[in-house]
Design a protein that fits this description.
Radius of gyration: 27 Å
Oligomer: single chain
Helix content: under 10%
Structural class: mainly beta
Distance between the termini: 42 Å
Strand order of the largest sheet: 1-58-57-56
Length: 688
């Protein structure tokens, strides 16, 4: 397809769903890259579409447009939602993605994972068809590079030992090796960390590893060559680095290739014969993890553990621009970087830059405006919970962070665009690698208001696996107090003025908005799994591993039990009007009439999830209900029409973490780190 015909669509479910399946997905807020301290972050830019950037996040490959800043735009015909920076999620891997590379045409993507599996798949096809699947190595694939003809792929691996080495060059569609019979394979004595293909002929490949060596291969068929002597190396075969080699890349014109390492060196080589030409002046104070060439081959952009990004002229080594990320703390270490051409300014010589911080945020830098930077925030771990207050959505992550995302009003015509990017809360933890409020996974999140003042702003109360209850102020987005629980929280539910916490030691505790203990109950006869509170704080329900729903009065005295589930009651949710209670168990959703002694309304009729239920959400009309499960599916229900349902299959990989309703949209989050916005208007009509 020509570049003008290629469109990056909202998609968080590809690979599993055939093209043509109706899906009301209006926006997908994709997660940020997964990062590892001391390792380069896989990053690849589409060769024809400006700011389309691909990277790995967990087991998924994310492609997002970083030309914009994550805006949702309104006012289009039919009042439909569109998004200026849509995200695309590829789910073909079963292990964490560690390497990603667009083909020179941009029509295919090669991606590798920590199990050593290479997948080549069609980016320009609606069903993302797989062209090649290859078990390339017995260990992690660390880097992938295409040749200029899009016919060959070079790979490096962290695997050590074996007869085939840890560098491979294969045909892109068959996986046939292109090493000569005499050589058999290439590689390094220790882990190979990077590889690069020369973009033109004659064909050349360079690789770098933790043995401090840069290897050079001629082909095809390919065979390793000893680096010849050159201006920077009086003898052949000399190692130009005295520490790990983290990145090698050929210039777009093929004249040079360069290596960068943990010794802070940038070494320039002849692109055809591999002779070391020059060791550039030291420009960083820490390890250089990655660099990328400009499209005119006159400069490189580098990123380093010293929390800076620099543009360096080649071959002089002069620093042309630099950006400092020290304000991000230790999380400001830069582990990935790439040039991209702004699609809105194709004539300008200066290019834009995207870099990746250790905490996972994307930094958009512009050579034309070196004094400014734009940071694209987002979760880069699984989202564990969510809650909504008006147009604000609060999400929590397994790394202990809390984020606020503002969802604009649907009919807001005051402006044509509104930023749709998370803003993170900050805590008082000594670890500043990320904006963590808890030191472990956040288990629950609730909003509680001061008693007697329902119009006062609520406090955000979260519990985590660090066995603490933390109170955060919404206005300052800062955690201000911590209450030790002394036990691990299992579930929580809040009304308006109180929070009920059920803990794994079979206890219940009731807290106010400031974290003061109001009441408690010990030595339960069951292990609590889920909890919910009535809006007036007059009643609490706790789901147990005994397959019962335990109902408590305001003083935490048990008043009744409700039976009907065949397994642990995993989630509970009161309807907005307080008359109904929805419960989720092993695979079934049930509805109970609260006002009539918890009599069954829908029991035994909704067993359509294939794995345990993890999330329930009522619409404001107390009629429509959404359920999500570990199967990754979302199902819409109407308890008045209990024989109908609407399914959104494969909504989130690994399971749905939470859901909240708006007037006509459903917002869902999952363990895949995505936040999806669904327009359910047409689907709700099906219940009429």
């Amino acid at each position: 397809l020509p570049p003008s015909a290629m469109v990056l669509e909202h998609d968080s479910t590809n690979l599993h769903i055939p093209h043509g399946t109706p899906r009301p997905l209006r926006a997908c807020l994709v997660p940020c890259p997964s990062t590892v301290r001391g390792r380069r972050c896989a990053l690849s830019v589409h060769p024809r579409k400006g700011g389309w950037v691909a990277y790995g996040r967990g087991r998924d490959v994310i492609v997002r447009d970083v030309d914009g800043t994550g805006e949702v735009r309104h006012g289009v015909p039919g009042d439909q939602w569109t998004m200026s920076t849509p995200g695309f999620v590829y789910r073909g891997h079963n292990a964490n993605v560690t390497a990603v590379s667009f083909s020179p045409t941009g029509n295919y993507v090669a991606s590798g994972d920590e199990h050593g599996k290479l997948r080549v798949w069609a980016f320009d096809h609606r069903e993302r068809l797989t062209k090649l699947q290859l078990d390339a190595f017995a260990g992690t694939i660390s880097d992938i590079s295409w040749d200029g003809e899009a016919r060959r792929i070079a790979m490096s691996s962290e695997a050590t030992g074996g007869d085939e080495g840890n560098v491979k060059i294969v045909q892109w569609d068959t996986g046939v090796t292109l090493f000569s019979k005499d050589d058999g394979g290439g590689g390094h004595a220790k882990r190979a960390s990077c590889v690069a293909f020369r973009p033109g002929r004659p064909l050349r490949v360079a690789s770098g590893g933790e043995d401090h060596a840069v290897n050079f291969y001629k082909g095809a068929p390919f065979a390793r060559q000893v680096l010849p002597a050159g201006p920077a190396a009086p003898e052949s075969g000399m190692n130009m680095h005295d520490n790990y080699v983290n990145c090698v890349r050929f210039s777009p014109d093929g004249k040079y290739f360069m290596s960068a390492g943990s010794d802070r060196r940038l070494v320039l080589y002849d692109g055809k014969i591999g002779a070391p030409e020059k060791i550039l002046p030291i420009v960083h104070k820490g390890s250089i993890y990655m660099f990328d060439w400009s499209e005119d081959s006159t400069r490189v952009v580098t990123c380093s553990a010293d929390k800076t990004v620099r543009v360096v002229a080649v071959p002089s080594g002069e620093v042309l621009h630099q950006w400092d990320m020290k304000d991000l703390g230790r999380g400001g270490m830069q582990v990935g970087v790439a040039f991209f051409k702004n699609s809105n300014n194709k004539s300008q010589k200066d290019q834009q830059i995207v870099s990746v911080s250790l905490r996972g945020h994307l930094n958009i830098l512009d050579e034309a405006r070196p004094a400014s930077k734009n940071v694209l925030y987002g979760h880069n771990m699984s989202i564990s919970n969510m809650i909504r207050d008006g147009n604000n959505i609060y999400t929590t992550s397994t790394d202990g962070s809390i984020a606020l995302t503002h969802i604009p009003a649907e009919k807001n015509t005051a402006s044509n665009s509104t930023v749709l990017l998370p803003k993170f809360f900050t805590g008082d933890l000594p670890n500043d690698l990320n904006d963590a409020v808890h030191s472990g996974r956040i288990r629950t999140i609730d909003l509680v208001r001061p008693k007697g003042d329902p119009d006062a702003p609520p406090s955000l109360l979260t519990t985590g696996w660090d066995d603490t209850l933390r109170i955060s102020h919404i206005s300052s987005r800062r955690s201000t107090a911590a209450v030790p629980l002394g036990r691990q929280p299992a579930a929580a539910g809040s009304g308006t003025f109180a929070l009920l916490i059920a803990c794994s030691d079979r206890s219940l505790s009731l807290y106010d908005h400031a974290g003061a203990l109001l009441n408690s109950r010990q030595n339960l006869s069951y292990a609590p799994v889920s909890a919910a509170a009535a809006a007036d704080d007059a009643q609490y329900c706790v789901g147990g591993d005994d397959r019962l729903i335990h109902v408590y009065a305001a003083d935490l005295e048990e008043v009744r039990t409700v039976a009907g589930h065949t397994g642990p009651v995993s989630v509970l949710e009161y309807s907005p009007d307080g008359t109904l209670l929805a419960s989720g168990g092993n695979r079934e959703v049930c509805v109970w009439n609260v006002t009539e002694g918890f009599g069954p309304v829908v029991v035994g009729k909704w067993p359509f999830h294939t794995m345990p239920i993890t999330a329930l959400a009522w619409k404001g009309d107390s009629t429509h209900l959404a359920s999500g499960g570990m199967d990754g599916n979302i199902i819409l229900w109407n308890w008045k029409v209990d024989n109908r349902r609407v399914r959104y299959d494969f909504a989130h990989r690994d399971g749905v973490a939470g859901m909240v309703w708006g007037d006509r949209e459903l917002v869902s989050t999952g363990l895949d780190g995505c936040m999806n916005i669904w327009d359910v208007t047409d689907d709700l009509i099906k219940f009429n």
